[in-house]
Amino acid sequence: LKDRFDGASRVMVSNSDRVRGNANAIVSNSASNSVHGHREGLARRHRYNFKLKPYNPEHKPPGSKDLVYLEPSPPFCEKNPKLGILGLTAGSATTRASASTA
C-alpha cells in the first residue's frame, strides 16, 4: 500500500470524452418485459462517464488499479485558518522522516 501511495499519480478529470447516449432508453424487443431481458445483449456500461488524464502530459494515463489524486495535500504544519488547519502545536516539529513513517 505504501508503494502505491508513493507512486500515486496526479490527474485531471476530462469529461470531453463522455459517453453519449440516453441512459433511459426503452428496450423495444420481446424480452423487454422479462425480468432478465433488459440485460441481455447490452454491453456493460461504464460506471462513471469521465476519463482521468495525467496532470503531466508526459506521464502515461493511470490504469484501473493505479492510485490517483486530484490535488496535492495542503501543508498541515503551516497554519491556514481558511482551510481550518491549525498548524504545529506548541513545541512540536514535523520532519520528512516523521511524515514518511506515519
Automatic annotation (TrEMBL):
The keyword Disulfide bond applies. GO terms for biological process: Wnt signaling pathway. The keyword Hydrolase does not apply. Keywords: Developmental protein, Disulfide bond, Extracellular matrix, Secreted, Wnt signaling pathway. GO terms for molecular function: signaling receptor binding. Ligand for members of the frizzled family of seven transmembrane receptors. Belongs to the Wnt family. It comes from the Eukaryota. Its main location: secreted. This is Protein Wnt. It holds the Pfam family wnt.
